Amino acid sequence: MAIKVGDRIPTTNFVKATADGPQPVDSDSFFKGRKVALFSVPGAFTPTCSARHLPGFITKADELKAKGVDEIACTAVNDAFVLNAWSDNAGAKDKVTMLADGNGDFAKAVGLQMDASKFGMGQRGQRFSMVVDDGVVTQLNVEEPGAFSVSTAEHMLDQL
Questions:
Q1: pLDDT, tens digit, for every residue of 30-49?
Q2: Pair 14, 38: CB distance under 8 Å
Q3: Does 49 participate in catalysis according to the annotation?
Q4: Active-site residue among 9, 25, 49, 72?
Q5: Measured between alpha carbons, how far is 23 from 11 in angstroms, rounded to an integer?
Q6: What is the CATH number of domain 13-159?
Q7: What pTM was computed for the model?
Q8: Is the dihedral angle over the CA atoms 16, 3, 62, 45 positive or is it negative?
């Protein structure tokens, strides 16, 4: 069953690339006591994700923060090294925190996984965005397969 507005983010772990190597990030601690704009992409370096989704959140980072967002985070079923390279390539450092969901545990826990096997990508997270306030989902925007409209930074700004 998919997560919905009003639900608490389930306890899972992400991995974040740091100067000291990959470090675990527990979801309870990450979301506690602050407002996070979280978006999920099917994969780093994929066309829509690289050309539109991530760049939109980078461009709109200051506007989102001006509306009360404490942190912007991106998750994908990729490893921390890939997400770190994608962040470097896109110029996302200091704008978007990359949270690797390498095994898809978070995508499964929130019920927003998808099977991209026909594209050679295996199990992935769907394209979505959410606002999480102190661990509780206050906005949730899940894209229809192949669509890119409700999970954008612009759409999120309109909701805040």
A1: 999 999 999 999 989 988 88
A2: no
A3: yes
A4: 49
A5: 16
A6: 3.40.30.10
A7: 0.94
A8: positive
